[in-house]
Each structure stands twice: as structure tokens, then as C-alpha cells.
Design brief:
Shape: globular
Structural class: alpha+beta
Helix content: 25-40%
Number of helices: 8
Mean pLDDT: 97
Number of domains: 1
Radius of gyration: 18 Å
């Protein structure tokens, strides 16, 4: 849904996630400050895509790109998974690629939302904080069928793994506990969601179509922070293998 994500009033930008050996070959930042400045590869790849969308695709602000406020992610949004510090299989392997494959995953998303939890010492405590952060009545995810991304910092990931949480376990837990209760949604939006046939499950609106649509991976460096990346909506995360030439 490229045109929809470029012409929307939403603040989305194309997120690029890099997996596999090419992360090292290009020096893609997967650790501390992976969403920020300081690494040429992340900035160059993300900015190159934005320039193509603007100058070739015509997504110029105020003309095709009608975003109400925009987002810093519209300048460049490219990072790599910190596979070396993840206690689980890398994201691309769970999507059916070989570990030695270099893979890029793309999806229109919002900029990352920080999840700060310094106090929780248990996996369930961290997941409680994460679920509360994902549960947002004002997010597109509440009415747009689309996956979301949860980027765990290595410290949070290690605590969750220590307590026995698998990716599937976390997906099931967060799917249930991140749903938005009906009383947090305006009457007008309730009518709109009903017209869109958005499911209402026991008085709650799920934030994704199903548990498997909560994409979980590890990135970042030391510190008790993680990030939630909400979607634009009505689209999927597309992963492709990068050919070496």
C-alpha cells in the first residue's frame, strides 16, 4: 500500500529493518542509539529511500504527502536487529529465511515509542508495562488491520528469557492485555469501528488482528528501555532477501 502510506494524513514513514550478515558488512547500527544519529549506514540507507520516494515517487510534503504533522522518521528510519544479544532466533529466521541470508523488512510505521521500565525485575512485570504502552485509543492500530513491532532492549529481553518467555508466549500475553477497553473509546469512534466491522472482543478492541501480528525482536544497547512501533495500517511487513552482487 505504497501510495496510501505516502499520501495519508498520518505521520507514517517506511521503516527498514536489516537482518543477517549484511548488517556487519555495511556497519548497520543494531546496538546503542540504533534509531538515532551516529552511524553512516543507517542514515544513508534510510535517507536514500526517502529521497527516492520524494523525488521519483512524487511524495512531496503538502502535495502528495499530506501528513498533518509528519515525523522525524520521514528523514531516515533504518536499523538492524541486535541478533548477537537476542536470546531468541532472529526475526528473519522466524520468517522462514536462513540465518546466513541478508534480509530487509519494510513496513510503513510511526516513529518508535519509548517503553521505560527500570523497576520491574520479572518478565511479567515488563510485559505489563509494555501492554499498557501498546494500548492506545488514538493509534491507527485500533482500527486498521496491521501488525505492530515490539523492539525489546537487550536487558528487557534477557529478563524475559530468564523467566521462560518464548516469542509465542509474549505474543499471546500482549495480544490479550494490550486490547483497549470500550470505555476509553469515544461513542463516535465506536460507531465508526462498528461500520468498519472492527472486532469487539468481550468489550475490548484488540490492537492487532491476532497474536502472531505482534512482531518481536531485539535491538539497542544497555539500559532498561524497549520500543513500540505502531503501524500505518492496512498493510503487512514485507521481508525480502538481499542479493549480493
Amino acid at each position: 500500500n505504497l501510495h496510501g502510506s505516502l499520501a495519508t494524513t498520518h505521520s507514517c514513514a517506511p521503516m527498514l529493518l536489516v537482518n543477517g550478515p549484511i548488517r556487519k558488512e555495511l556497519d548497520v547500527n543494531c546496538s546503542s542509539n540504533c534509531f538515532g544519529q551516529g552511524r553512516q549506514a543507517n542514515a544513508t540507507i534510510g535517507r536514500a529511500l526517502q529521497l527516492i520516494l520524494t523525488n521519483v515517487g512524487g511524495a512531496k510534503p503538502g502535495i502528495m504527502d499530506r501528513s498533518t504533522q509528519g515525523s522525524p522518521a520521514k528523514y531516515a528510519f533504518c536499523f538492524g536487529e541486535n541478533e548477537e544479544e537476542s536470546p531468541w532466533e532472529p526475526f528473519h529466521v522466524r520468517r522462514g529465511f536462513a540465518a546466513e541470508d541478508s534480509v530487509v523488512t519494510a513496513m510503513p510505521t510511526e516513529a518508535p515509542h519509548n517503553i521505560n521500565d527500570h523497576a520491574s525485575t520479572s518478565g511479567i512485570g515488563i510485559l505489563t508495562t509494555i501492554a499498557g504502552t501498546i494500548s492506545q485509543p488514538g493509534a491507527n492500530a485500533i482500527y486498521c488491520n496491521a501488525p505492530i513491532f515490539l523492539i525489546l532492549g537487550p536487558e528487557h529481553a534477557q529478563t524475559l528469557h530468564r523467566d521462560g518467555w518464548t516469542i509465542a508466549d509474549m505474543q499471546e500475553d500482549l495480544f490479550k492485555r494490550s486490547a483497549v477497553p470500550l470505555d476509553q473509546v469515544s461513542k463516535e469512534n465506536q460507531v465508526s469501528y462498528e461500520e468498519m466491522e472492527r472486532p469487539l472482543v468481550n468489550g475490548y478492541y484488540p490492537m492487532t488482528p491476532g497474536p502472531e501480528d505482534i512482531h518481536i525482536l531485539v535491538a539497542g544497547g544497555p539500559g532498561k528501555h524497549s520500543a513500540y512501533i505502531p503501524p500505518f495500517g492496512f498493510t503487512a511487513a514485507c521481508s525480502v532477501r538481499v542479493a549480493h552482487v
